[in-house]
Amino acid sequence: MPARSPEDQASFTDRLPLSRHTVDRDYLARERDDLFTVLMADAATRVLPVWKGRALFRGETALNLVEPAAVPADARLVYLGRSTSDDDLPAGTAFVAALLTDEQASSVASEDEWGNLRMFATGLSARDAGLATEALAITNWHASHRFSPRTGKPLLSTKGGWVLVDPDDGHEVFPRTDPAIIVGVTDADDRLLLGSNAMWEKNRYSLLAGFVEPGESLEQAVQREIFEESGVRVVDPVYLGSQPWPFPASLMLGFRATVDVDDPGSLEPDGAEIVDLRWFTRDELIAAGDSVILPGRSSIARAIIEDWYGSEIDD
């Protein structure tokens, strides 16, 4: 498989809904001790409330960015940065995420106003897609890292919400992202390999993917995961692009790879995670119609499949 040109890689990345952004994260401002005092006193600041992994939406195509006064005073806050675009708000507008408890969320909005980014990502502007992705990723980390791993004491939020500190020994805990590879595997006939996960309905198929293990390169992870899940051995992993996937904390790293003609292995699902595997030509994939459900358009999996196909595939 030939290496991709920078132009091809940029074009692929432009098609990833959650990789879009028009926000400067303004990391130096995180050092200010009075950051939230100043921001939350400014009516021009906009806050994105987050509750149980969902963001506050205005319909299906825009976030509901509220004024500071609309957010409970004791909500946990994270500074997201400043807008670099002029949309409905001027460039330079400061954005803050507010991680709400159940009680706080009920005081802010009704339950049907909280939206799932995975479902609505493709309809959002680049600014809103980037804000929601950043906000969900960092607030998911806050929700899952409440106590010190050393002392068990509640961690204190500092530096704009991007560092948590143990109050006893001052140990700092930083956000973590879990890298995962996802791979478009093709054979000598340029057929694409798709698998069905044990947790999905039987006719849902996607690319094979898995987390990168400690001490492992991305290329090694591609070869190991594909063999473990399918019995197929691949060579020549080619990087396509990446997309954050804050459900709850992944970074999906997209690859293409080809079956090793000298040692192809034997196609067989692992039976635990993957229960079915199928090779598809382009004509076979389209002819399958509703009998094969493909990944949603917010995912990098869909972008890789359509990159192989050569154009968008109608739902």
UniProtKB/TrEMBL annotation:
Catalytic activity: a 5'-end NAD(+)-phospho-ribonucleoside in mRNA + H2O = a 5'-end phospho-adenosine-phospho-ribonucleoside in mRNA + beta-nicotinamide D-ribonucleotide + 2 H(+)
Domain Nudix hydrolase as annotated: residue spans: 175-306
Catalytic class of the enzyme: hydrolase
Ligase in keyword set: no
Sorted UniProt keywords: Hydrolase, Magnesium, Metal-binding, NAD
GO biological process, one term: NAD+ catabolic process
Keyword Magnesium found: yes
EC number assigned by the record: 3.6.1.22
InterPro entries on file: NAD-cap_RNA_hydrolase_NudC, NADH_PPase-like_N, NudC-like_C, Nudix_hydrolase, NUDIX_hydrolase-like_dom_sf, NUDIX_hydrolase_CS, NUDIX_hydrolase_dom
Co-factor requirement: Mg(2+); Zn(2+)
Single GO MF descriptor: NADH pyrophosphatase activity
GO cellular component, one term: cytosol
Pfam families from the UniProt entry: NUDIX, NUDIX-like
Entry's family note: Belongs to the Nudix hydrolase family. NudC subfamily.
Name of the protein in its database record: NAD(+) diphosphatase
